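Exercise 7. Predict the joint structure of the components listed below.
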Amino acid sequence: MEKIKEVVEKVVKRVFEVEIEAGVERTPEGIEADFATNVAMKLAKEVRRNPREIAEEIRKGVEEDGELEGAKIEVVGPGFLNFTLNDKFFIQEVEELLDDFDKKVKSEQYRGKVVVTEFSDPNPFKVLHVGHLYTSIVGEGMSRLIEFAGGEVHRTNFGGDVGLHVAKTIHALLACGRQFVSSDASRARPPLRGSRSPDLARKLRYADENKTVSPLVADIELLAECYVRGTRLYEEDERARGEIKELNKKIYQIAERGEGNEEGLSEEDKRLAEMYWQGRALSYKYFEQFYERIGVKFEKFYPESSVVERGRETVLRELGNGVYERSEGAVVFSGEKYGLHTRVFINQEGIPTYETKDVGLLLTKNEDYHFDESVVITGNDIVDYMKVVLKSVEQYAPELVRKTRHVTHGNVRLPGNEKMSSRKGNFIKAVDILDDVFERTKSEIIGLAAIKYAFLKYRVGGDIEFDAEESVRTVGNSGVYLLYSAVRGKKIINSALRVETPDILVGLNEFERELAKKFMEYRGVLREAVEGLAPNVVCKYLFELAQEFSRFYEHCRVVGDEREAERVKLVKLFVQVMEHGLFLLGITVPEEM
RNA sequence: GCACCCGUAGCUCAGCGGAUUAGAGCACUUGUCUUCGGAACAAGGGGUCGUAGGUUCGAAUCCUAUCGGGUGUACCA
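Solution:
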């Protein structure tokens, strides 16, 4: 497919002196030919000529070119070029792919580029919910696509270790007088592996008596509970709101002083500081364990406290330059003149908001990595917010904004339309999903594959539905189905006996041919996936590939067949493509299932 | 109110820099098979692509309007 594309583009350039991308696709079902392109019609618009005539010229050009020797090329309909290739062509492609797969499939779209990705972004003192699971998987998928395309990727993570949510949580924590079970974060043990019933989460608050649950998880549960309580108080109780705001200021000061620097603090504040640093450490420990479990590795965590000063300085400096302005005692950016809305960067109490922290983050990331591109992956509820922040930064660092790309995804919906909110505490935790699916598959590796695939098969942007039961189904468009097809392939390779004998494919039956045709689509698929940072494109292809392989498997005996060696080659290539594609999705194939 | 996103088969979704007869999966109906591990394959029914206009030789795809759903819209993150 890519070969056809290349040849056609070459011919077009030579004959028409126009650079144009030739979209080559498989022909719809029922049409004799293998592949088709509509370049002639595209070109017709540009050069204002009859598309059929143009197609005719391209056809001649391609025939003269000789690279697609033996191909039957037809001009049909309004100007499609239909290609029917002979087996020799397919065989050659298969052999080439097998010869040096990585090189043949390689993409250069990000070659030499330093790319910083930022995703997941959980807040310390809060619990990881399904949304974090989703965004982590999407972010990892995109990072891998960029890496595959030659980019030097640095995965970063930004989280609110200071801010109102922390004050709310700590307020409730102080009020209830509870202590962390794992008071020393370094002693915290990894969470339980394997099965846990979904409702166990509720029992976790009695974790001190229940030795089967890690102290760390119990502490995080405690924080979650306190966040819910604190939020309720903040909304309902005037006095508590005042106290929380005061607490918020204090926490900022504590964070600013840094850990261990408690000189001159009152006894009460020392206790507060201790609680803050403990809670923060526990949260990061908990995050790390979670990421390790899902196979995501961040190079750097940027706690908000580490960029807030940079942000504040910048905002205040640019306040002097007229980018930001004072309004009602706060520092704001008026987005209206750019068709956006106004946002507060430093509030009336003098505390920097998220906006300012994001400014600091943007600048800090740039200084740390000198990136060519920064990809920020977040939920889509934040699009307009981010536009305002970026527009403000554009006023004094236009280059930085040009290099920044904000990619957004939707929320995870569960069947039955349950609404989730971490403020109310009725959300689904990330571990609940993990545990549920691991329980169903009895395997972490398969369960993880099921979840990742279930999340990534949707186009990034809109809300998605996650159905745990469907995700582990072995039939249909599921990760398990893909895994199974790959494992089957491996099994064949292992039991094949006469691999050594004839090593060149001599001919193809209809199933072999279809499979080979599918292999040829892979490069184009990768190009498209990288271009759009679209893991779902890879998913769709891999599913179709698995179907094609299953068909082949069903109809063509490999082991023991007289054409065993030839067929093993096709199976090998299948496994190679499948593993390669799944790797880009963050999924690994087990040896057995 | 304004802005953005989304309305494609009963359900969940692809397709949307226009183009050959609108595609999958699930569910439903019916077959194949004592298998290189059925966690399989094959066949079938099911859609006026929210609605109405427009541009075009040609529109699910582009434009306009309209209806329905979601999100955001100054001191949360």
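Discussion. Residues 122-297+417-441 of chain A form one domain.
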